[in-house]
Amino acid sequence: MDFFYSFLSTTAFATMTWGNGLMIIIGMVFVTLAIRKDYEPLLLVPIGFGVIVGNIPTIQGMALSVYDEGSVLSYIYFGVSQGLFPPLIFLGIGAMTDFSTMLSNPKLILLGAAAQVGIFLTLLGALFLGFNSSEAGAIGIIGGADGPTAIFLSAKLAPHLLGSIAIAAYSYMALVPVIQPPIMKLLTTKKERLIRMKPPRQVSQREKIIFPVAAFLIAAFIAPGSIVLIGMLFFGNLLKESCVTERLANTARNAMIDIVTILLGFSVGASTQAQTFLNSQSLLIFGLGALSFAVATAGGLLFAKFMNLFLTDKINPLIGAAGVSAVPDSARVVQMVGQQEDPHNFLLMHAMAPNVAGVVGSAIAAGVLWSVLVV
Amino acid sequence: MSYLDSGLQNVVNAQGVTVSIVGMLIVFAALFIISIFIALLPKMLVVLAKVFPEGHHHAVKGKKTSDDDDKLLAAIGFGLLKIRAKEGMKE
């Protein structure tokens, strides 16, 4: 009988806290949103299930959770905590990204730079709320709207906040279609939303091959902290555009990125144990994350309007909202909002330019923050 | 000291404003230089093409196009027609 009682005391029923229960419900909500509403299913299903797994109370003395040394999950989490997975995801993103629209209209790159204002204003907000400078930098990067970048930087600057920052970043990325449209409509007039842009010019293969090497050199010389992310992004793109490494590019953009996404999503989810996740800091991070997304969207839009003051060929300011680097969701949102005004206006290809520029911009911002704020 | 004061003091102590402005300027500078490079790239390629003319690359040349498929289908169709015509003559 003693054996039975001893066994009962080790079950999750005996050691469960209300916090674990709440987190399991949150995990289920993520999975439900992904399946029912199709919100970023490739991310929310692994993260949601990881949250459920990570909140089953473990047995004292057994290495089970991501934080227990020697546990299987801790080895998977190693790729997150040491910043190994995000660059591999960037390699895959590079291998699937077509920079043609950006190459055909280079002035749109500046919209990707303007949207990074969300990162730096959120950094100020986080400092104001009492976070230290490393934590504030890690929280600010949520405004980059780039999950792997957010994970990479928080693993380097504030590992104890990694779970909250990763969940906030991916949640808001999934909510791009909800967060962005009201801001886009608020900051633009109907006339501006109706602007039609010139179709992009044809880009030669030579341009596509030279671009990743040259852009990497420029970014790396200016912000050496970004070489890991930017290097992998442009390396992946060179694999794609060189036409001689199609097999490697295919692996990077399909099998590899899928495997890494599964491991990253699951282990990030599993790191959100109630004991470390449910606190006032996480609530503040979620609040600041929402603010940073809104500021980044507004930054891109307002800069597009500013550019229009000087341009003869006006740009539709809606595409400024795609400067946040949630690829390709924010570009799709631009297309959707644009077509609500004019069903024959196709903004998607134009929006992809600031969208991919945003990926580069947020990686450079992460490199700058890492080199300046690391203690 | 009020919460507002302590918050502002934290921003000042961490040189938050400087980090934000300089950080934003670096991001802008990097992307601005990249955009200038891209704008100049077609002109540079014109000069480059004079030194290294752009020939057909074996990897690109080897790629099948839908046009190739149409030609192949036409050839197969023509072959089948000839075989049938021969068989018809024998009968």
Q: Can you put this structure into words, describing what you see?
A:
With 375 residues, chain A is mainly alpha-helical. Helices cover 72% and strands 0% of the residues of chain A. Chain A contains 21 helices and no strands. Chain A has helices spanning 2-10, 12-15, 18-36, 41-54, 72-81, 85-96, 100-104, 109-114, 117-128, 133-140, 147-157, 162-174, 176-187, 190-193, 205-222, 227-241, 246-270, 274-277, 280-308, 329-341, 348-373. Chain A is globular, with a radius of gyration of 21 Å. Chain B has 91 residues and is an all-alpha fold. Helix content of chain B is 84%, strand content 0%. Chain B is built from four helices and no strands. Chain B has helices spanning 3-13, 16-51, 58-61, 66-90. The A-B interface holds A 102-103, 106-107, 109-110, 112-114, 116-117, 119-121, 123-124, 127-130, 132-133, 136-137, 204-207, 210-211, 214-215, 218-219, 222-223, 242-244, 246, 357, 360-361, 364-365, 368-369, 372-373 and B 6-8, 10-11, 14-17, 19-24, 26-39, 41-42, 45, 48, 54, 57, 59-60.
Structure, briefly:
The complex is a heterodimer of chains A (375) and B (91). With 375 residues, chain A is an all-alpha fold.
Write the layout of secondary structure elements.
The complex is a heterodimer of chains A (375) and B (91).
Chain A: H1 2-10, H2 12-15, H3 18-36, H4 41-54, H5 72-81, H6 85-96, H7 100-104, H8 109-114, H9 117-128, H10 133-140, H11 147-157, H12 162-174, H13 176-187, H14 190-193, H15 205-222, H16 227-241, H17 246-270, H18 274-277, H19 280-308, H20 329-341, H21 348-373
Chain B: H1 3-13, H2 16-51, H3 58-61, H4 66-90
